């Protein structure tokens, strides 16, 4: 998968257009909104805007060999839920799979309902320490595909891979 990698200091950003988003090619389900990456940047990028889906699946990949060795990194989805967002009572699942296939993926569930109407928030998919053992491609996903519950009002700016403080 080809991706746009924007590096701000030690932060690596994979924009929404470079993620795999189920149904993002259908305007009934997703649309795209140009915005600045952050206040200090002139760089424009597209955020994915969820109109309505009952099958949420947003995932991507990244090569850890581009990161600083022996550093703890976190993988976070940068998202926002508008005031009129709906369908978020059911938690979304987050998964981070490291290159070392002997280790189990990191998985967790998060309720996004508490973030409705707030600013951009970081939703952690997991963390890892760069080493020779886990050098290679990681994969990460945010999904909710079992409930059949329709949801809308989610903005996805991208996924940030950054050193953990």
From TrEMBL:
GO MF assignments: carbohydrate binding
Segment forming the signal sequence: none
InterPro entries with a match to the protein in the record: PP2-like (IPR025886), PP2-like/Lectin (IPR052147)
Domain of life per record: Eukaryota
Protein's name in the database: Phloem protein 2-like
Species annotation: Arabidopsis suecica (Swedish thale-cress)
């Amino acid at each position: 998968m080809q991706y746009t990698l924007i590096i701000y200091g030690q932060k690596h950003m994979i924009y929404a257009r470079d993620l795999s988003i189920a149904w993002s090619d259908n305007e009934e389900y997703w649309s795209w909104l140009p915005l600045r990456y952050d206040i200090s940047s002139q760089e424009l990028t597209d955020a994915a805007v969820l109109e309505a889906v009952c099958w949420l699946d947003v995932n991507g990949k990244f090569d850890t060999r581009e990161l600083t060795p022996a550093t703890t990194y976190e993988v976070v989805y940068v998202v926002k839920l508008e005031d009129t967002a709906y369908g978020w009572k059911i938690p979304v699942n987050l998964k981070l799979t490291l290159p070392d296939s002997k280790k189990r993926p990191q998985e967790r569930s998060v309720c996004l309902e508490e973030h409705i109407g707030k600013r951009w928030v970081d939703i952690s998919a997991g963390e890892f320490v760069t080493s020779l053992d886990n050098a290679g491609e990681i994969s990460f996903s945010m999904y909710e595909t079992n409930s059949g519950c329709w949801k809308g009002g989610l903005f996805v700016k991208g996924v940030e891979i950054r050193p953990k403080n």
